[in-house]
Amino acid sequence: MPKDHGIGASSKRREDIRFLTGKGQYTDDINRPGQLYCHFLRSDVAHGRIAKLDTAAAAAMPGVVAIHTAQDLAAVGGVPCGWQVTDKNGEAMKEPKHPILAEGKVRHVGDPVAAILAESLEQAQDAAEAIELEIEELPAVVDMKAALSGESLVHDDVPGNLCFDWEFVQENKDAVAEAIAGAAHVTRLELVNNRLVANPMEPRAAIGEYDAARDEHTLWTTSQNPHVIRLLMGAFVLSIPEHKLRVVAPDVGGGFGSKIYHYAEEAYVTWAAKAVGRPVKWTASRSEAFLSDAQGRDHVTTIELALDAEHNFVALRCHTLANMGAYLSTFAPCIPTWLHGTLLAGNYRTPLIFTNVQAIFTNTVPVDAYRGAGRPEATFQLERVIDKAARELGLDPAELRRKNFIPPDAFPYQTPVAVQYDTGNYGATLDKALEMADAAGFAARKAESAARGKLRGFGLASYIEACGIAPSSLVGALGARAGLYEAATVRVNPTGSISVFTGSHSHGQGHETTFAQVVADMLGCDEGQVDIVHGDTNRVPFGMGTYGSRSLAVGGSAIVKSVEKIVAKAKKIAAHLLEAAEGDIQFADGQFTVAGTDNALGWGDVCLAAYVPHKYPIEELEPGLEETSFYDPANFTYPAGAYVCEVEVDPETGRVEVQNFVAADDFGNVVNPMIVEGQVHGGLAQGLGQALLENAVYDAEGQLASASYMDYAMPRAADFPSFAVDHSCVTPCTHNPLGVKGCGEAGAIGSPPALVNAVIDALSEHGVSHIDMPLTPTRVWEAIQAAKA
Amino acid sequence: MAQVSMTVNGKAVSGEVEGRTLLVEFLRTGLGLTGTHVGCDTSQCGACVVHIDGESVKACTVFAAAADGAEITTIEGMANADGTLSVLQQAFQDHHGLQCGFCTPGMVMSAADLLKTNPSPTEHEIRDWLEGNICRCTGYHNIVKAIQAAAATMSGQAQAAE
Prior knowledge:
The complex is a heterodimer. Chain A is of the alpha+beta class. Chain A is built from 19 helices and 28 strands. In chain A, the strands form seven sheets. Chain A has a seven-stranded mixed beta sheet with strand order 3-5-1-12-9-10-11, with helices on both faces. In chain A, α9 (375-393) runs parallel beside α18 and α14 packs parallel to α15 (551-578). Chain A starts with 15 loop residues before the first helix and ends with a helix. The model of chain A has no long low-confidence stretch (mean pLDDT 97). Chain B is built from five helices and five strands; from the N terminus they run ββαβββαααα. Chain B is an alpha+beta fold. A five-stranded mixed beta sheet of chain B has the order 2-1-5-3-4, with helices on both faces. The N and C termini of chain B lie far apart (50 Å). Chain B folds into two domains: 2-77, Roll (Ubiquitin-like (UB roll)), CATH 3.10.20; 87-161, DNA polymerase, domain 1 (Orthogonal Bundle), CATH 1.10.150.120. Chains A and B meet through α1 and α17 of A and α2, α3, α4 and α5 of B. Chain A: It holds the Pfam family MoCoBD_2.
């Protein structure tokens, strides 16, 4: 019988009421008295020197209040990077300045050159057209291999456009080379992990306001982590101390990583609000979002998998070119390194692994984390090369994986790539997925497709990811310039209702419901008695926000710790009121009882006593019932699973149709199954979107050719069937109190290789061994024709 | 500037607009009805769908001046008279048909129009109908389920009423 409340129940989402009635409050829904509208004049060329920038005529246009360029921002810092990677020679990565407005040079189409403030948005847009901007074009650096030649430099002081050249695990380099040279079989694959645009449906927006009488700044912004923005912008860009800077991230319409980062526009509106003495509002158009939101993926990789005669994996070697774009976005350097190299063991007991990653500046929009971030890139190359190896060796791809899985009794398992997996059972999810996908019936379905002239394929992929993005000590050693814990304050009000203030941020994940379920379960109360507050630095404790599937595993654990402290204190109060020894007080279902007696007190009586301490152990205990915790976990969490995709390919047109998609995930314990399944559905659509449809295409001049929904193929409702998802294989996380692992990114990680493997399986009779994503009809058809030729 | 008058969610409203003012801007900025969203600038995403004289229309494709005299319904006008969720809205909550909520108003307005013209659509028909509404969160799986469930509830209610 499914639970109807608390942990394990599919509680309906309380946040839905406001979203379904048009009462959500997103940043662009907010208007401040006297606000000005901001419009940015952006570069329409990818690379060049600013020869002329004359704003005089524009400044005289109707409604224009101010126009700012880089010279007005001389006292303002650049957009900082939050992660430092050390290269193979022990040197720090190249970290060129990222100015708020372009200084002397423009480095990508969309680089902001001037900001116009006017009484209306239309007036600001009209004025932008009157700015005289002349750019002396320089050759655009677009292709990563060509960038390394250094003939044209994105940053004059970064030779070869090389941000860093990273090796991991460096001491294994020679042993890996030796193992590959002596292996019975080596499978090689060169592949592209295509560049994606995150495209949350709400475009970014920011409103700055300054209260001169109190010297206080407020920024409303579309952020996944308002405290991170307050820290980065306050400390490194605008020199505003935290107590004078409030950052509010109200309802946020999706993020998928792209709203983690500190962006130039939010720093500008905060600065400008003080400079002109009026609130300043900016909302990105979708076209601007394509040219200014950090993009994702964009790796070119060569991978080699060595196997012995018994088909054991003996070594893995990878080389990756990773595109950083024109500037280093907040977490960009850690994506192709510590969130990628450390996942190359996958679900397997490969003993020797070495990877070399070269991070490259190009005249394109900056690249940073996008749903999965590094882990999809690691999983894709690994699951593709394993499939190719199975095909080359004539083995069943499931059996080859099973043979090399880390066995369930080997946990905790120390991988050769730094991380230690706490728990898992990879065979269980693979069995589950194959059963759900009716693997046994595939041959009959294939024959039926063949009778209609169609090619049917069956593909699978296993994945593992590292979630939580913590602990601080580890990420600090790896180059993070921040701690990565989470904070929570639990405030019990005098009549027993509970307000929870969390540093996590919900922008679609349903925290207001899930976190309330956890607290209600622990306190034996109704979920409706618990309110979840997030997204305002003036209300919640210093928190690191939401990304990397960390909210329940890290943020939820902080809430659990605070509730435990609440219960411990409440027991002391109850012991006093019941005139019993503290050790004899038991708490269950919202009742405090004295063991072995029928003496009992309700939750409300104890809460009231905490705030009306007439009869209260005042010598031993402070009044009140409120606790704060900062939870810094012992390890990452490691969700894992197996996905199966079945496709039908029309050989005449190259069109791929997904017939069935099965996801069997081990997320550890699950608090709200309905929400977890929803997260998987969304992840799958993004992963299948990458594999089939989506591609950020830059032409040779650095123009983003796919810069609107007319050109960038967002997945639509008719592109996929319904999905079959399962989370019944559970190995609880061993080091957090809820035993949870995180579910937000899995779908986007496991689905691209499953789909590509399925298409290659379908085309195997034509001898096609690889096609780069997205598998558009053109690419598939061309691959078939090339194989035939 | 021109004067426009229309009925929005049953109330007569009027305002001054520029010739270039889009209906969605008039609703959001002029009337403060911010439930209708803007998610793109190429009339692709469908976050701005409203009903004009009973039909679903992307409010970013219509000038405010062109809607003069029209009957408009927005997401703010979709709940039952007592403020409770309508059958369709309730189905979206029951089946987790929304996550971040940004595309949701457009999805609801679009789905309402579908169910008016096709009271029991197949999964295929629902997916085809939603071609002009983009959701980045749900993978559409639960949106489809919600619309199917709403259709079933509504047809049950219609039968009961007969």
